[in-house]
Specification:
12 helices
Length: 301
């Protein structure tokens, strides 16, 4: 895992400007990128003071160019931590592309009801709790967020690592709403398949968790991320109907060699060699969780 993180005010790299199509797999219609961010530029979209990193702007236009290059139809935009609970850029993008996009918001638990309803109308389908980045909202009000999601028909998304999940694992297994773990649980593959973190992830999945097969470069020690293969395969085997794929574009808070999104998609050929399972990960599972159309009603941008 990359641990050489510079000062939070040092601007992290921009994404690869030349995304390519995957070459080792055939993309199904309706493929979904379930994890991406758009990032605005100050002063219109201020960066919060207590952020953990400083990213360059990442526009919706650049993101749609990546989707077109890789053959991905739909996408889920996740509120980026550097904008805190200011979801304006997120909801603006959702409003512009209501058929193609869904959103995951970050918001205080005590917002007025009208604010929650406005977000739902915009296309928000879940809330993100984040214990790793400045600007995120932790687990202190989990009960309130669970109740909100149950009322709104949303799910919960967790950006955390397995060491912080252990104290609340039994609580998660009793959630009344679906919940999903970012970046394969954010454990270090160097700890091994039998590590406590990996075993906790497998237990959570057996109890109903979803997982995003994303962020391979965040947990890997290998240049080609080959060391992630047995871990991803174990997660898929545990619950193939609750695994989804995400690019994590524009790959913020990462200072290693910037991945190409086509390479990240090609990794799925090793993670899920069976095409039917792979297509479920890329399309069917995500359609079920995020509520995308099941027929081609939109064109590529």
């Amino acid at each position: 895992m990359t641990t050489n993180v510079p000062d939070r005010l040092a601007v992290c790299p921009a994404p690869d400007p030349n995304p390519r199509a995957p070459t080792r797999l055939r993309m199904p219609w309706g493929a979904v990128d379930t994890h991406a961010h758009v990032i605005g530029a100050p002063p219109e979209y201020p960066l919060i003071e207590n952020r953990s990193y400083t990213p360059p702007p990442a526009t919706g236009e650049d993101y749609f160019r990546m989707l077109a290059a890789t053959g991905v139809t739909f996408a889920v935009l996740v509120q980026v931590s550097v904008h805190g609970t200011d979801n304006r850029l997120l909801t603006d993008m959702l409003g512009r592309y209501p058929e193609r996009l869904r959103g995951i918001a970050v918001a205080p638990h005590d917002l007025p009801e009208r604010e929650w309803l406005k977000m739902k109308e915009a296309g928000v389908v879940g809330l993100r709790l984040n214990t790793l980045s400045g600007g995120g909202i932790g687990l202190d009000h989990l009960d309130s967020y669970e109740a909100l999601c149950a009322e709104l028909g949303w799910h919960l998304q967790f950006l955390t690592d397995t060491s912080r999940l252990d104290p609340v694992a039994s609580r998660l297994s009793k959630l009344r709403v679906p919940y999903i773990m970012d970046h394969m649980g954010h454990f270090a593959v160097s700890d091994g398949l039998e590590s406590a973190g990996m075993q906790l992830m497998l237990k959570l999945m057996a109890d109903g968790a979803w997982v995003k097969l994303s962020g391979a470069y965040r947990v890997s020690d290998a240049p080609d991320y080959a060391d992630t293969v047995p871990f991803a395969q174990a997660l898929i085997e545990a619950a193939p109907d609750r695994c989804v794929w995400g690019s994590d574009w524009p790959h913020p808070a990462y200072w290693g060699p910037m991945p190409n999104d086509g390479n990240l998609l090609d990794l799925l050929a090793d993670w899920a060699p069976d095409e039917a399972i792979r297509n479920a990960i890329l399309a069917d599972n995500a359609h079920r969780l995020y509520g995308f159309p099941d027929s081609p009603v939109v064109g590529q941008e």
